[in-house]
Design brief:
Number of helices of chain B: 0
Number of helices of chain A: 0
Distance between the termini of chain B: 37 Å
Largest sheet of chain B: 7 strands, mixed
Structural class of chain A: mainly beta
Order of helices and strands of chain A: EEEEEEEEEEE
Largest sheet of chain A: 6 strands, mixed
Helix content of chain A: under 10%
Shape of chain B: globular
Structural class of chain B: mainly beta
Distance between the termini of chain A: 37 Å
Largest interface: A-B, 24 and 28 residues
Strand content of chain B: over 45%
Helix content of chain B: under 10%
Shape of chain A: globular
Radius of gyration of chain A: 13 Å
Number of strands of chain B: 11
Strand content of chain A: over 45%
Oligomer: heterodimer
Chain lengths: 111, 116
């Protein structure tokens, strides 16, 4: 079993829809949770960064962490075609930056 | 955020040759640089951690003699794929903490290597 599970998709939704992306994990020691967006042939860029449980909102993006269920989510409101990319979750249990990555979910927003 | 510049963005080489990929920190001093490899539809895999002025730390299963890492200055880390073979074809990405201790990582643009 992988430490971090993420559905690779692709996930195709119409423009304007609310998108929900998720990852589950098995290591209860994870404390730092991140979401990265990666466009084709580009390096990942950090979207959201959260520590421990709770919600964090930044514009159209909301990250949720449920440590009791070992489940994290990224919500995208009012989705745009420019949001089409691969979204990767990553997490670590301390600040030594040893990140464990999900496989990434390919998201397609249809105009 | 911090800027990490990676070059070349793509390279094609013949089997048996060596390829060097450069990663530069443009607006901060990078004492540590992380090198990742990503195969199509797979997650990022950490290959090694390079530290300025000392030897790199390689992850299990990564051949240090094949993937030479040099971090001779605070703004430049290089990855050299020696005697490249077609199975080394991949997307290589460097990242750094950007001089912060928040746990965030800033990534280079990535380098697509194709070995013929």
């Amino acid at each position: 079993q992988k430490e971090v599970e993420q559905d690779p998709g692709p996930l195709s939704v119409p423009e304007g829809a609310i998108v929900s992306l998720n990852c589950t994990y098995s290591n209860s020691a994870f404390q730092y949770f991140m979401w990265y967006r990666q466009y084709s042939r580009k390096g990942p860029e950090l979207l959201m960064y959260t520590y421990s449980s709770g919600n964090k909102e930044d514009g159209r993006f909301t990250a949720q962490v449920d440590k009791s269920s070992k489940y994290i989510s990224l919500f995208i409101r009012d989705s745009q075609p420019s949001d089409s990319a691969t979204y990767l979750c990553a997490m670590s249990h301390d600040s030594n930056y040893q990140l464990i990555w999900g496989a990434g979910t390919k998201l397609i927003i249809k105009p | 955020g911090a800027v990490v510049s990676q070059h070349p963005s793509w390279v094609i080489c013949k089997s048996g040759t060596s390829v060097k990929i450069e990663c530069r920190s443009l607006d901060f001093q990078a004492t540590t640089m992380f090198w990742y490899r990503q195969f199509p539809k797979q997650s990022l895999m950490l290959m090694a951690t390079s530290n300025e002025g000392s030897k790199a730390t390689y992850e299990q299963g990564v051949e240090k003699d094949k993937f030479l890492i040099n971090h001779a200055s605070l703004t430049l880390s290089t990855l050299t794929v020696t005697s490249a073979h077609p199975e080394d074809s991949s997307f290589y990405i460097c990242s750094s903490t950007g001089g912060t201790d928040t746990g965030e990582l800033f990534f280079g643009e990535g380098s697509r290597l194709t070995v013929l």
